Amino acid sequence: MRTKLQGNAMIAQAGGPTTVINSSLWGAFSELISQLSPQSKVLGARRGINGVLSDQYVDHRSPNAESWAQ
Q1: CB of 36 within 8 A of CB of 42?
Q2: Are 12 and 51 in contact (CB under 8 A)?
């Protein structure tokens, strides 16, 4: 059995939602979730780099993750 990676991960992407961007982001998040330990956070930065600069993150493993797009 392979050991899960420890620590947190974040993805920040900017630009309009398109099927290509949505698919590639979903692939990246899916892979992160499969590789990280259950205690790790998978963070998304709202509005790309602007979210990083203004500390606007969403933990996609939290029960409220679906409210981040509001």
Answers
A1: yes
A2: yes
42-45 and 9-12 beta bridge pairing: parallel
Position 54 scores a pLDDT of 93
Q: What is the pTM of this model?
A: 0.64
Q: How far apart are the first and last CA of the chain?
A: 39
Burial-class residue 2 by CB neighbours within 10 Å (0-12, 13-18, 19+): exposed
The token pair that represents 5 in the structure block: 């990676």
Cβ neighbours, 10 Å, residue 44 = 21
Beta strands in 1-52 (DSSP E): 9-12, 42-45
